[in-house]
Amino acid sequence: MMLTLLRLIRIVFVALRYRLDELVLSGIKHPVAYGLLRIVRFGRAPKMPRGVRLRLALESLGPIFVKFGQVLSTRRDLIPLDVAIELAHLQDNVPPFPSDQAAACVETALGASPHKLFKQFDIDPVASASIAQVHLAVLHDGREVAVKILRPGMLNVIEKDLTLMRVLAGVVERLAPDGRRLKPREVVAEFDKYLHDELDLVREASNCSQLRRNFAPGTGRENLLMVPEVVWEYTTTSVFTMERMYGIPVSQIDRLRAAGIDITQLARLGVEIFFMQVFTDGFFHADMHPGNIYVSDAPATLGRYIALDFGIVGSLSEFDKNYLAQNFLAFFQRDYRRVAQLHIESGWVPPHTREEELEGAVRAVCEPYFDRPLAEISLGQVLLRLFQTSRRFNVEIQPQLVLLQKTLLNVEGMGRELDPGLDLWKTAKPYLEKWMRERVGLAGLRQRLEKEAVQWTQLLPQIPRLIHANLVRPDMAPALHAEIEQMRRAQEQTNRLLATCAAVLAVAVGVAIWALTRP
């Protein structure tokens, strides 16, 4: 309890140091709040922008709050854009935990010291973040691997900070004018889920394995994306061992050019890989910032993307994929009525929403973008503006779509950094049109029939027997009707009995009152 109180005092101190009180009060449109704002400012406005102050405060409070800021930066449908952009700059530059602790974690998780398990184990980490750090190693069979080790004691630290975050979220929800709309408690709950998912390295390893299978040899995509192989015998909830990958960070453009990689082609392939994951697989890497994406410079795999860090992935249902594809194609065709219809058909807006009113709002969002050259249009920003406009119509933005929008912004930013002239719309439109043709045409019908064939082969032989059994089954309708009639009569009898009892009780009460009031 004392440690929790001290932590709360520390949070309050940091909030005051970075003038977060001013940030909160400036968002409250009330005379009392305005007066308090003048007092806390002492006649001076803060020197740094609000987003910068919030970022520095979160960095001061430690890795859990840094991770919270990173997740919050993805919710651009809820927080101001300038704050979201600044929070996106948060980095996991966390000092590594001691090497002897890392070795002890490996021994506890795998049952032997790392020097016995591995032919070689680098005691100094090659990377360190808020949740885990990575050590390089070599297996006894000669394979080079990377070993990701969870920070010890993370669960207790996380639970304590999450408890305080829930309290603060409740305060914000009650006091801030936009508290209910911003859904601070829901945001903290979403952060809770992300954190606990990242604390389970088996889950991350399974994400890695699935993504690798989606781009495995024989899929026709093996020349697009490389994903490390999971070493399952050396993987637990706190230790994740994977194949070591060599490459150049995608942000180091000069090194990529020096290696002979076609930068323009690389940017286009990045967009194709993203849409392939979203619309074909419904399973996508949702943390595609430059630190997690490398490019192979080996002669045999030159120019292939390499994906790392699989703690956050997104998944979409067939309904989500169809909804998104139709929305994007409607945007390309400027069919705003269809966009409005899709929102209503999806059930994400109240059924009484006027279609033409929603159409006008969508047109106001999208039309200004089409007056610019296509290369200057940000598909991610269009989607973001659409989410913000949808707030007027009480649209419940789906979490998986918010995660998709965040990832799309990352992919778009990464692609434009590689090739400033990248036309994301031109790259995406042919793929989406082809995907839709495959879904609604004969090819899509054949594919769905093939998928359902296994189930139908089990059901078809049973159909004659089931029909025969239904035909020879005795007609239960008369018996059922008689039973219902009997229940109705019993209910009427019960009602008459209750009415009689009520009348007798009323008479008894009246007699008792009369007797008590007699002189």
Automatic annotation (TrEMBL):
Alphabetized, the UniProt keywords read: ATP-binding, Cell inner membrane, Cell membrane, Kinase, Membrane, Nucleotide-binding, Transferase, Transmembrane, Transmembrane helix, Ubiquinone biosynthesis
Pfam families referenced in this protein's UniProt entry, alphabetically:
ABC1
PANTHER family with a match to the protein in the record: CHAPERONE-ACTIVITY OF BC1 COMPLEX CABC1 -RELATED, PROTEIN ACTIVITY OF BC1 COMPLEX KINASE 7, CHLOROPLASTIC
Q: Which GO terms describe its molecular function?
A: ATP binding; kinase activity
CDD domains referenced in this protein's UniProt entry, alphabetically: UbiB (cd13972)
Which Gene Ontology BP annotations are present? ubiquinone biosynthetic process
Q: Where are the transmembrane segments?
A: 497-516
Q: Quote the protein name from its UniProt record.
A: 2-octaprenylphenol hydroxylase
